Amino acid sequence: MTFALQGSLLDQVDEVGLRPLAGAVQRTVLTRGAWLDLRPGWLTGADELFSRLTLGGPAGVEWHGERRVMWDKEIETPRLLRFYDEGERLPDPVLTQARVALSDYYRDELGEPFRTAGMCLYRDGRDSVAWHGDREGRASTQDTMVAIVSIGSPRALHLRPAGGGESVRQVLGHGDLIVMGGSCQRTWEHAIPKTARPVGPRISIQFRPRGVR
Ligand SMILES: O=C(O)CCC(=O)C(=O)O
Ligand SMILES: [Fe+2]
């Protein structure tokens, strides 16, 4: 009896799903009207979700390299991407659930739903993203939110005031949620720096409102 109960409890935790947000989200207020919300371990069954979404996984995510034109040269940015625009079916039902849960939780403060899902695959410590704000479109002039679910190897998200200043470092672990809010995209910058430590792959899933990128 006890054994069976424990077995079923363990199964529940291995299943891909979401823990509650209400009462479990911790806010850190930064300067200049920016803030960060953190909900460690939001996702359950993160191992299973990672194996579904990764390169060659059963979800069939079409991961591709990003080509960016810089100084008239096309350069490969060091990570793989797949961007899901609004209306596109997400590669796993839990991602649709996550988008609904985030839209519900932040409804009053954000005033609109999360709509798009950008996914990034950092294959190892050499993959990275340089300092930037998600400033395309409205995010350059208006407060907004970018919610990130992280699975796989923990990597550090670094944040600093735009133009320089003391940086903040937040390790994003397997199944964690972080939300950058307020003026964070225009008054602060963020990056996932390369690391020389032997780290495995990480997938980041970013939910954004319409027109934010
Ligand atoms: O890897 C992450 O979680 C951050 C990705 C990011 O900042 C972006 O793609 O705009
Ligand atoms: Fe970003």
Automatic annotation (TrEMBL):
Keyword line: Dioxygenase, Oxidoreductase
Keyword Oxidoreductase: yes
Highest taxon listed in the record's lineage: Bacteria
A Pfam family reported for this protein in Swiss-Prot or TrEMBL: 2OG-FeII_Oxy_2
Keyword Chaperone annotated: no
Residue ranges annotated for the Fe2OG dioxygenase domain, each copy included: 113-211
GO biological process, any: DNA alkylation repair
GO molecular function term, any single one: dioxygenase activity
Transmembrane parts of this sequence: none
Name used for this protein in its record: Alpha-ketoglutarate-dependent dioxygenase AlkB
